[in-house]
Design goal:
It is a single chain. By secondary structure, this protein is mostly helical. The chain has a single domain, classed as Growth Hormone, Chain: A (Up-down Bundle).
Length: 188
């Protein structure tokens, strides 16, 4: 997979963490830089770890499904993207502000927002894409965007978070479509 696609996937995956950082920082008048770094490290760390775990699982399954791997990557990325958009548009009140500085809550949020990265790692295995560099890129971009999200959350609130999550979902859907189109029309 090319570097631009990996970066776009990283940005798309980081939108959940970005949106949570925005909404989680709303309840604080000022989050200290050391606290923001802990939040960024938690989200970025799990976003880097989960694709590796997904990739390891995918490597075990790759030979069994190599003839349909492009469809699986397309379906997984499209499903994740659509779910992100749906959650951003959901006004049922489920996405209430939470105490993001509570270590237990932060851990739960970091794991929850990185589940999509696990699935992307699985897709990378099916596409025979090495995982170390993408995992580092995903983790780094998530770390940086989480820090930006904490700062923006204190300034602009949930309005920006939902729009960015929608954009992230759209990016993942577009990359899934690109993988499918490349395989169907340019690989055979």
């Amino acid at each position: 997979m090319d570097l631009v696609s990996v970066i776009l996937i990283a940005v798309g995956l980081s939108m959940d963490a970005f949106a949570v950082a925005i909404s989680g920082s709303l309840i604080y008048g000022r989050i200290q830089p050391s606290q923001a770094l802990k939040i960024g490290a938690a989200f970025g760390g799990f976003q880097a770890l989960m694709p590796i775990l997904g990739w390891l699982a995918g490597v075990q399954l790759r030979d069994l499904i190599s003839s349909i791997d492009h469809w699986i990557a397309f379906l997984l990325l499209t499903t994740i993207g659509a779910r992100m958009i749906g959650q951003a548009l959901d006004n049922s009140g489920k996405n209430k502000t939470m105490d993001i500085l509570n270590p237990r809550i932060l851990l739960a949020l970091a794991v929850a927002t990185s589940i999509d990265a696990l699935v992307v790692g699985l897709s990378f295995a099916f596409l025979n894409t090495p995982i170390v560099t993408p995992a580092l890129i995903i983790g780094s971009i998530t770390f940086a965007l989480t820090l930006v999200g904490v700062d923006l959350g204190q300034k602009f609130g949930l309005y920006l978070g939902k729009k960015m999550e929608i954009l992230g979902g759209a990016v993942l859907i577009a990359i899934g479509a690109k993988i499918l189109i490349q395989h169907l029309f340019f690989n055979g």
